[in-house]
Amino acid sequence: MTEICRGHEEHRDRIAAGRRRVPDREALLEVADFFDALGNPTRLKILYALTGAELCTCDLASIAELSVSAISHQLRILRDRKIISFRKEGKNVFYRLRDQHIVDLLSVAMEHMEEGPAHG
Amino acid sequence: MTEICRGHEEHRDRIAAGRRRVPDREALLEVADFFDALGNPTRLKILYALTGAELCTCDLASIAELSVSAISHQLRILRDRKIISFRKEGKNVFYRLRDQHIVDLLSVAMEHMEEGPAHG
DNA sequence: TTAATGGTTGAATAGTTGCTCAAATGATGA
DNA sequence: TCATCATTTGAGCAACTATTCAACCATTAA
C-alpha cells in the first residue's frame, strides 16, 4: 500500500498539500459517523417525519412501516450521534430533531437531489 | 410490525402529517445513498483532500495511506453517486469534487462538529 | 399487587461493506 | 511488437449492520 507515483516532485507537493486539507483522525471519524447516521433510508424516514413535529416511537414505527423494536434501535443510533433528542411523557417517549442545522441539511439535501440529474 | 398506539385519534393525525413530510421512496434512497457515500472515513479523506485541488488516484492513495486498489474502489462509489468527476491525462486519472455544494457541505459539517459538543 | 401498554435491549442472523490480492485494461514509449 | 506504469476490476473474506424475536423495564390504572 501507499506506493507513490514514481519520481515527479509535483506529486509530492500535491500530496503534502492534500494531506493538509484532511482533518485530524478524530474529527474525521466524527463527521463520518454523522453522515453515516443520515445514510440509511429508515433513519432518513424518521428524520424527515420529525421535521415539523415531535413524534413518539410508535408513531415513527407506523410511519416507517417497521416494528417498534427496529425503530427503537435506529433511534438509539440517532440519539448517540446527537442528531435527535427526546422527552418522556407518561408511557410515551417523544423524539425531535436536535437543532435547526439538521432541518436545514435535510431540505438542502432534497434540493440537491432534485437539481442533481439536470446537470448530470 | 407497524402496530399503532391503541386508540387516540391524535396519534393518527400526527402519523398522517409525519408521513406527508417523508419524501417518496426513490428520492429517499437517493438522499440516503448520497449521505452514505460521505459516511466513511476513507471517502471523507478523499473528499477533503480534493477540496482545493484535483488529484490522481495514486496521490489519493498516498494521502489516505491505503492501497491504490482500495482507493480506486472508493472512487468508483463516489463517481457513481455523482460526488466527484474526473479527467484523464496520459496514464493518470485526475479526480475533483463535482460541484461547490460538496465543498460547502464538507466545511459546514466540520463547523457543526466543532460547535456540537459545546451545547451538549 | 396484577395487568396492560409503550419502549428498550441483547442475541441471532441474513445481508452489506471495505479491504486485499491477483488479474485485466489502457496509455506511453522503446 | 514488448515492457512499464497508472488504474480498474472481480473474487474472497472478515467485519459490520439492519432487522426480527423474545425478554425485560417503566408507567399507569385497576
Characterization of this structure:
The structure is a homodimer of 120-residue chains. With 120 residues, the first copy, chain A, is mainly α. The first copy, chain A, has one domain (9-119): Orthogonal Bundle (Arc Repressor Mutant, subunit A), CATH 1.10.10. In chain A, 62% of the residues lie in helices and 12% in strands. The first copy, chain A, has helices spanning 9-21, 25-38, 41-50, 57-64, 68-80, 100-115; strands spanning 55-56, 84-89, 92-97. A 3-stranded antiparallel β-sheet of chain A has the order 1-3-2. In chain A, α4 crosses α5 (68-80). The two termini of chain A are 33 Å apart. The mean pLDDT of chain A is 91. Chain B binds a DNA duplex (30 and 30 nucleotides) through α5.
Task: Give me a quick take on this structure.
Chain A has 120 residues and is mostly helical. Chain A has helices spanning 9-21, 25-38, 41-50, 57-64, 68-80, 100-115, and strands spanning 55-56, 84-89, 92-97.
Write the layout of secondary structure elements.
2 copies of one chain form a homodimer.
Chain A: H1 9-21, H2 25-38, H3 41-50, E1 55-56, H4 57-64, H5 68-80, E2 84-89, E3 92-97, H6 100-115
Antiparallel strand pairs in A: 1-3, 2-3
Helix pairs in contact in A: 4-5
The structure holds a DNA duplex (30 and 30 nucleotides).
